[in-house]
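Pasting two entries for a bug report.
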Amino acid sequence: MSLKMMNRTTKITGLFNIRYPLVQGGMVWCSGWRLAAAVSNCGGLGLLGAGSMHPDTLQEHLQKLKAATSRPFGVNVPLFYPEIGAIMDIIAAAQTPVVFTSAGSPKTWTGWLHQRGIVVAHVVSSALFAVKCEQAGVDAVVAEGFEAGGHNGREETTTMALIPAVRRATALPLLAAGGIGSGRAMLAAIALGADGVQIGSRFAISQESSAHPAFKDMVIKSGEGATMLALKKLSPVRLLRNEFFAQVSAAEKQGASEPELATLLGKGRAKLGMFDGDLVNGELEIGQVAALFDDVPTVSDIMSAILSEYETARCEMNNLSL
């Protein structure tokens, strides 16, 4: 991974004190300590996905993560989390260097985290919210496009349209997310104005991911068009098509109300599918880019492939004349 261009300090590498401008998404039921440690040890920024962890579980994962890597790491925290105060206290007590927040106002916790010396990035789906992040004092923004897996922006703006819009709206360090799973996609995002990338789905289907093997197998057997957005009346989420998705789709076509959809969703659907491996009744969150995956490699192999392909594509672009 000794890539000349990648070895220079950038806005992202300098901010997070990492080698490469590449962050692993903090995905529920996928991003445990093994995945985060592996990414950090390879020169990226590994994130724990606190959205699927009770406070005691997060504390355990932080302890194991700190024992497994001496490099910077972070925690992704959805701000609607019901035990948010306890989660933040644990993060601060563990001297976590970076926190990525999402699904809520960055004003709520950014100042509190800064007072404890923690770098803050916030996930947005529009240029408008990127500006609000800058006003709230965050250190970086993650602009996540419509292609992304899991919970998605209501604007349905694709990554290719979103990144230049956010770049024009703010000078904050900018990570691109959504539909990025290769070195060529990474180069494209940087060409559009991003300073680095956040990658989720490719790491969700890695050996170190805590997702169930049956879920990983279903993802690599899926093809183009295998994911769709659902539950738009609640919170848009991109899912693999399965029996649960078919039930949601039928209910939405029949005009189901928000409470009716909430009842159908119930509790623990994502855990049931992604962690427990129930491919029929579970909620199976993954991005559109998963259609390109046909294996379950190690994090080290993923990082090497992405960075090598990035460098190859960059050299090709340097030789291109119009």
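Entry 2 (this is the one that rendered wrong in the viewer):
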Amino acid sequence: MEKMYVEDLFRFIENSPTAFHAVDTMKKKLEARGYTGLLESGNWKLEAGGKYYAVRNGSSLIAFRIPKADFKGFQIMASHSDSPCLKIKENPELKSEAYVKLNVEKYGGMLCATWFDRPLSVAGRVVVRENDRITTKLVHMKSDLLMIPSLAIHMNREANDGYKYNVQKDMLPLYGMYGKRESEESRQTDAAGMDFMGMIARETGVNADAILGSELYLYNRMTGSIWGANEEFISAGRLDDLECVYASLQAFLEAEAGCSIPVHCVFNNEEVGSSTRQGAASTFLADTLYRICEALGMTGADYRRALASSLMLSADNAHAVHPNYPDKACPSNRPLMNRGVVVKFSGNQRYTSDAVSAALFCSICGKAKVPVQVFTNRSDILGGSTLGNISGTQVAVSCVDIGLAQLAMHSSYETAGAKDLEYLVQAAKIFYESSVEETGAGEYLVEHCIIHR
């Protein structure tokens, strides 16, 4: 089972080079299992036993099932669809000597050095005019199209002594060469074939002048790998956070109906602050949960009571103790790969976990027979944050930050433990089948209550 999940994760990542593709891949999986897509602009007619999903701006998705009309609350697992990378700017072609490069900018806090000297390509979306309609088309160039070449050590003798990368100068990917060449068929000008947006238009089957807008990104072409003395490690691009996205979706699809509504929630733009209409700071989750209650004939008070009996997992990977930098980890909380799901704490609330939410999640992991670890930053190192505390400004439910231990976070090729993916799927499955109810001041009932039909 462990290897099956890993190989399926690699396929999921390969089909999801951008947030737009991740959502499209999830939509296909959901529809294959009988889920109905809902438009936010449409009327929602929901019924007990129904299976639904909604998408906002092509890059965030919320899926849910309604086990029964008198459900107790919501069991929400939230993750994010985006990863740090290089975004292609408008009017991207830059000519230098006989080279054509693409103009790019950073998206998120990426580890720049990991993007050099490896095959890259382009994916994203374009918005096109088709008669009087504006439509969106996904772009996924499945070829080794670009590379960012390093400067030779002979020309920068200090390269191994530390280097501050200038994205506008150092990280422009090489796309091609222009000038005249002679082919077997005829003389031609290479420059004619260097029209980048023309290539994108051909890939999507439209005329270049029909493209009204685009959001295109570079992605690492290296496929996932299982490795190590006992095949205990996995590596791939975008493990942060597609590993949690995949685990959440897989558990959501495997889970049986319980007494609460299971919610698989994936936001975009976590890597750049979440403050977009499809990010965790948006109303997407709040709107969806309220509309579920509204469609089932519930009142505003009913909605708030449901929130009080809800639990959210903010699922985003955690830092494992690094084999070469063990001093960077907290002295007493030192998560390792292949040792279970990580609960993340922060005294300044950059993570949402508190005594109650962590205890509730640990209780669920106990039922799932899944080991739990703890992550905190060193007190003298400022850590990152994630979507849980941001989402909580819109939907105030008890929340715990969790993830899987990994190395090289925000590299273009990250590493995690081969066992941990199955651990998270098992824990999330029991989570989705459970309900959490506040029964008194500081008292909670956690039930694993499968409805047998």
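Dev reply: Rendering is fixed now. As a check, the viewer should reflect this: The domain at 2-83+237-448 is CATH 3.40.630.10 (Aminopeptidase).
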